[in-house]
């Protein structure tokens, strides 16, 4: 009869079903009572009452993506919300996967998002250095302590032997996920030290306990995560702590650094759950108290697939280049795995504008997030990412920036080169130069603020604000002309535009936006024309029927002669 070590072991792929798998002793009070499956933080207050010391520890092996930013943000918010400290640590022990520019990308992405670290590279701190490749001596010291205490041993096995052990373990029935046979564990200390002294390549392995300790996760409760094994051919899950290249593995460096840097809470992705028992075994071997662990759910696509480059997980830099504002992306990321308390929109800043938000108060600035962040709001299910929500947030925060005179000018300066480039055929002409000056671009931003999702859209969305004439042959323009033939309102449209032109050209002074608005409403309500006739005809004349900017603001934006020329051209087309 084939037995297993301790409780039945499962692969990580089955750990997603905590409540149904008989081998996972993840039992919370709510589950024993058969109630709805919710995390422990929803049942009791798991938020720290003392300052939390957190960290973000990325590897410079690629760009910072949504999942990385969310991990950094949650750790940052917990530290700020409790009056603690947020550390940045670069985990660059895997030299083979390190990419040029990746470390700089980490710094740029975090600073752009407003996630500033209290200790770390370029900032310093009392627990440095904060780059793991500069802490090798520290890791060697603690690895030696484990060797001396008998909690670790040197392994001299070749890659070929280890590959054969791995293959044979997979062929067992059931297969063993623990693969090593502890061959080198039985080498006596003196012989092991001598082989190492003679420069024979070796790794250092942790002597794993017979069964890993039950772990406590503040979000998932108690979890008994063991490694599947097969007693017919005993194998052991003795993780490598030091590699042959002289660099520590993630397991050792992570535990040593978190302890020495006095980290109290570790918020990281759910994919690290299987490694946590190994880390707890290391804490026990050193005699240290581990931090509190919170493993947050995966970010997935709407089809419930883990985000990748092919399913929407692009780099933060790409979002920035595509016109996404940092405050929008932070707001967007924060709500995937965390829910603000009811009424949060009234607890932070900008209370008046919060009334424009959804009933759940989802629009939140960084100040709002810090004021309201609480571990009790973390959720367990995979977070399905919808880009439409990001567009909503971005349009809101872009509109907010446009309404601020100083920030509006910054936006105008930022988009000015793109406008000059798009309209290069007219931007240098004397009669058009003023349209590409910052002051005019600011006015355009104000007029079109309700139509923009991102700033880079402006040259296309507001193209007719920079040209002599709109594109009457656009889809919208042709649709309007086609509709007139059906509704038979062409004659009324022509008469209205003629009357509007008379009023416009005979005015002693250029009408104000209020006067323009009043005149349009007069034609729509009191002159006998249908409101749709008035609005559609004027929009065709001024914008080629392209929707977006409010008509009074658009007419006021344009040069008076340009308005006249556009109405005259529209009349020529409609009279055909």
From TrEMBL:
Family statement: Belongs to the class-I aminoacyl-tRNA synthetase family. Glutamate--tRNA ligase type 1 subfamily.
Name of the featured protein: glutamate--tRNA ligase
Source superkingdom: Eukaryota
Enzyme class at the top of the EC tree: ligase
Originating organism: Myxozyma melibiosi
Sorted UniProt keywords: Aminoacyl-tRNA synthetase, ATP-binding, Ligase, Nucleotide-binding, Protein biosynthesis
Positions of region (Disordered): 29-53
Listed NCBIfam families: gltX_bact
EC number: 6.1.1.17
